[in-house]
Amino acid sequence: TSIGLKAVFDSHNRASPPEDNLNTLHSWIGLATVILFGLQWICGFVAFLFPKLSENIRKAYIPSHKFWGKFIFIFGVSAVLMGITEYGIL
């Protein structure tokens, strides 16, 4: 994901003339998806793989983890569909 983001920013910055970054809803939704995914990954790692965390905290976090997982998935699919329609591929 980070390699893809770097490639997109580089292609915009190196274009002649340079193109603006983050100027469409597609780009903002995509960036939000990447950030939320990273946060979800870190929180999930701490909640489920950190050995000293109590079972009660893990059980309490599961509904939130499921909600945000679905939300991030929908955001990701939305970003992909917006990107496809942005370039008229459909």
Automatic annotation (TrEMBL):
GO MF entry, a single one: oxidoreductase activity
Organism this protein belongs to: Adineta steineri
GO CC, one annotated term: membrane
Designated name of the protein: Cytochrome b561 domain-containing protein
PROSITE patterns named among the record's database cross-references: CYTOCHROME_B561
Domain of life: Eukaryota
Locations listed in the record: Membrane
SMART domains listed in its UniProt record: B561
Cofactor needs: heme b
Main location per the UniProt record: membrane
TM spans (from-to): 28-50, 71-89
Membrane topology: Multi-pass membrane protein
